[in-house]
Amino acid sequence: MADNETLECVTEHERILQEIESTDTACVGPTLRSIYDDQPNAHKRFMEKLDARIRNHDREIEKMCNFHHQGFVDAITELLKVRSDAEKLMGQVTDTNRRLQEAGREVTAQTEEVIGCRIQQRNMTTTVEKLQLCMPVLEMYSKLKEQLDSKRYYAALKTMEQLEKVYIPRVSQYRFCQIMAENLPRLREEIKEISMSDLKDFLESIRKHSDKVGETAMRQAQQHRTFNSAVAKQVNIGNYSKPVYSLSGRTHMHISNGLLTDEDTGDEEEADEEILTAQDLVDFSPVYRCLHIYTVLGDRETFESYYRKQRKKQARLVLQPQANMHETVDGYRRYFNQIVGFFVVEDHILHATRGLVTRAFTDELWNMALSKIIAVLRTHS
């Protein structure tokens, strides 16, 4: 029985040792606890068994080390030989790296310089392209300034339109183009103000010179009537020369065979005098310019309304006689000259422009003038 118990104990200790050798360390605790749970002095026998097992493993380790010792020594000897070669190789690598770094330093500097040149070249190319794109805008704006300085306002408005619709949209991302675009409406308003100022000066001028225009027109009418009478006489005689006569330009009157002599007209020099028209006495360009400008700006109706209103006011002033007009014939002459000059200008505007004044507007002024003239003559005569 004792032998059986001893055999079982030994077998159990073998099992425990196998579990300890093959089991994870976290599970060793329950295994060791079982040693103390079996028999009273079982742990001593287990410790003896454990020491025997340890001595057995030590012997196996020693055998293995003795078996591999010569190979280990040979490996160490080879490593010592390799170490010297490695030191030589390390020196060569270090020297090669140093020489490579020195050679690469110059290459790096040249590479950075090349990169900088490439960047400058790219920036210059981009700048040239952008400048070529911006140059037409700048040239058009410069042209606009020249037109404004030379008072070519109608052409300036056309240039503004091209800038807004064609040129500025191409480079609208630049600040100077935005400033141009913001400045164009202000320039348009300045053009409108300047053209309206010129128109006011024109209206003031024709108000002052209407008597001269009327005097010239009445002289032309008298010469024309005298000329027609002379022509009628020559028709009866059968010998006359055709005159060169125009109501819209400078002409000379040439009468053959002494028709318009001192006996006929009172003055031969007056017959050959150069005929002046409203265009010769009055510069109508402010009216045309202002009309074109307001038409381009889409505000033609405002201009037409202003012009007709001002001319109607001037008509009332012209039709108002001076208090002492009835005292001299010159007073009547100046009065009628002013009226005729006013309507000669309006007739020219009627035929030279399209719709600025209409026949109905002119007839309205004429009817007003007739009633006023009749009333003035009845009062002063």
- What proportion of the residues form beta strands (DSSP E)? under 5%
Give the SSE order as H and E letters: HHHHHHHHHHHH
User: How would you sum up the global shape?
Assistant: rod-shaped
Helix/strand-derived class?
mainly alpha
| Average pLDDT taken over every residue | 77
Summarize the structure.
By secondary structure, the chain is mostly helical.
Which keywords apply here?
single chain, 0% strand, 381 residues, Exocyst complex component 6, mainly alpha
How would you describe this structure to a colleague?
This protein has helices at 2-22, 28-38, 42-149, 153-167, 175-237, 262-265, 268-271, 278-281, 285-296, 300-319, 329-352, 359-380. The chain has 381 residues and is mostly helical. 17% of the residues are buried. This is Exocyst complex component 6.
Task: Describe the protein's topology.
Blueprint: H1 2-22, H2 28-38, H3 42-149, H4 153-167, H5 175-237, H6 262-265, H7 268-271, H8 278-281, H9 285-296, H10 300-319, H11 329-352, H12 359-380
Helix pairs in contact: 1-2, 1-3, 3-4, 4-5, 4-9, 5-9, 5-11, 9-10, 10-12, 11-12
